[in-house]
Amino acid sequence: MAYNIFIDGEAGTTGLQIRERLAPREDIKLIQIAPERRKDSDARREAFSQADVAILCLPDAAAIEAAELTQDLDVRLIDASTAHRVDDDWVYGFPELSADMRDHISEAQLVSNPGCYATGAIALLAPLIEAGLVDDDELISINAVSGYTGGGKALIAEYEDGSAPAHFFYGLNQAHKHIPEIMTYAGLTTQPVFSPSVGSFAQGMVVQIPLHLDDERSLKALFDALADHYAGQQFVQMIAMDQVGSRIVPTALNGTNQMQIGVCGSDDNGCGTVFAVLDNLGKGASGAAVQNLNIMLDLDEAQGL
Ligand SMILES: NC(=O)C1=CN([C@@H]2O[C@H](COP(=O)(O)OP(=O)(O)OC[C@H]3O[C@@H](n4cnc5c(N)ncnc54)[C@H](OP(=O)(O)O)[C@@H]3O)[C@@H](O)[C@H]2O)C=CC1
Ligand SMILES: CC(=O)N[C@@H](CCC(=O)OP(=O)(O)O)C(=O)O
């Protein structure tokens, strides 16, 4: 038996990558609408009504409209946009966040897919706060670099026509759209200072959080808390401390649904960093959406990944 899946926004950056992962699968039948009708509410509603699950790969306003369009339909939704990530009616689709998360996702009618930067930041902070190594009101900084596909079709066009700079920082007013979900799911009560940036590579991401160390918060204590939390996870893995090397490369996991987590620094100097490497379009978007879809359909979580 095949499940009917509709990708709303399948021609966009995230949608295309989800389609690439689902199209070869025999257990999935993709419902498609003619490209020229992709913004036509009647055509989309018809597609929603035929689908078991629809994946929204749309700007926030269109995702909100899609959720309204489907309110009286049976279709289950995965929303890749920011629109519903801190909405109590939606389950946050981060299977590795806690032991009961997969059950919540599996039973959910509405699942919001985490943001790319948020995936890295929450993956680092939530276990450390739970272990008591970071206080929930600690003054935290989050530094990150993303490939330019993170900005969707508009930013991709700037890089492809050569008009974009090699590297730029943004989010300078500290109102980036991922901050609410980072605070909510990491468990931070004080807003972190978030400094995202974009480099001249298509895909890939590093999220880094600098931390001052002491006798209790040593590099080993940080590593052990993260390793305990992610033990047995197939898509989130620790980099052994002696394997971190001298460079962290954002493109290292491109094309995969993996996220790697590492710890580096100097106990002697009292300065350390925890970091996450992921593909912004893999575990940061399309891969995560497929993983959530598999969990919702009670399939092997790694199917097609
Ligand atoms: N890129 C990334 O790394 C990540 C993106 N996301 C999120 O995924 C969502 C999609 O982003 P992304 O794929 O990058 O964006 P893109 O701009 O690449 O694609 C968006 C797609 O949605 C279509 N669209 C726009 N409005 C409507 C509408 N009213 N009805 C139907 N289709 C519409 C667009 O059509 P048209 O061709 O006309 O523009 C386009 O094909 C966003 O909410 C984004 O925040 C999440 C995680 C990471
Ligand atoms: C490089 C870049 O511009 N990145 C986007 C975030 C990626 C994205 O669209 O994220 P979500 O939809 O998952 O929130 C931004 O900072 O707004």
UniProtKB/TrEMBL annotation:
EC number, UniProt record: 1.2.1.38
Pfam family, one: Semialdhyde_dhC_1
Swiss-Prot/TrEMBL catalytic activity: N-acetyl-L-glutamate 5-semialdehyde + phosphate + NADP(+) = N-acetyl-L-glutamyl 5-phosphate + NADPH + H(+)
GO biological process, one term: L-arginine biosynthetic process
InterPro entries membership: AGPR, AGPR_AS, AGPR_dimerisation_dom, AGPR_type-2, NAD(P)-bd_dom_sf, Semialdehyde_DH_NAD-bd
Gene Ontology MF term list: N-acetyl-gamma-glutamyl-phosphate reductase activity; NAD binding
Job description of the protein: Catalyzes the NADPH-dependent reduction of N-acetyl-5-glutamyl phosphate to yield N-acetyl-L-glutamate 5-semialdehyde.
NCBIfam families: argC_other
Protein's name according to its UniProt entry: N-acetyl-gamma-glutamyl-phosphate reductase
Organism annotation: Paracoccus seriniphilus
